[in-house]
Amino acid sequence: MQKEPSFLTSRLNEAIGWARKFSIFQYPFVTACCGMEYMATACSHYDVDRFGAGFPRFSPRQADVLFVVGTISHKMAPVLKRIYDQMAEPKWVVAFGVCTCTGGFYDNYATVMGIDTIMPVDVYIPGCPPRPEMVLDGLMKLQDKIQDQHATGRRPAPEARPEILES
Amino acid sequence: MNTSSLIESVKVRFPAAVSAFHAWRGDATVVVRREFLLEVARHLKEDPALKMNYLMDLTAVDYSTFGKKPAPALFSSSGVAVKPAAQIPDEDPWPGPPSSSRFAVVYHFYSTAHKHRLRLLVPVEETAAQLDSLTALWPGADWLERETWDMFGIAFRGHPNLKRILMYEGFEGHPLRKDYPVNRRQPLIGPVN
Predict the structure, then answer these.
(1) In Å, what is the CA distance from A89 to each residue of A20, B18, B25, B190?
(2) ipTM value for the complex
């Protein structure tokens, strides 16, 4: 039987979660037009720095959150997977825009039908492209998720893809 | 030169090469037999009256289902049929596909000196999908011909580096051919979906 965590440990977990959620170092993997909306969100009008995520790191080894912004083609998929693998734990993935969520309106030979076919995704932000408000909403949802996680960084397994998409 | 004199000059110079021609909505088009392509192209570039020094575009068309199939659904997975648009009467109708060949390779030439442009259409059979490369005349043809090879499977004789440019090594088939299934996926990693 698992022991209840002591008062001190649970407070510590909370403190670590709080610190993590306000110091998101993001890696923007920008491939398409969603990038414009990403830039709008990052700039002063919407100011993503208010949420502690204003510091993009263009090295996966220094990043916590992978922002996949824009259509991912089958040719690009191994590169994206490699970037994800290079990131250190704890790490999170945000699917930015409908192309990364599901493939969007692309139904052809070239496009990956959702990046969750190749890596676990924590937050999906749909929209073509999503408004900055939606991005900030997604970011706040991610912050809640980070806050709720155990200090070890071990997160629950991502939701499985529905059966209908597996075939 | 205007469109009609452009067509005329090519037609007079190469009577055996030109199988058809038209000027439609201000664009001159000459249909050239493929064995004469290199000869005609060199003339277009080097003749001082034509001076087509800029190859604007090079692509291909697959006419294998042209006019045979109703407009396909927008999403192949949804099965929703899309109704084709009603025909608007046109005083100057489109002249139609160049010939009965499956493919046509399209060349758009422009002259920055004379500011005129000409389109060459070269019908290509499916059984011998091969053409002469224009890379020796216009270095810019290099990637355009690679793209045409990648997407349509039309080979270019004499090309220095004819390999895929958009799709990856190991990709099977040529995706813009009309017989490439719209649902066919060849992912490098991850499931087929």
Answers:
(1) 12, 66, 61, 22
(2) 0.76
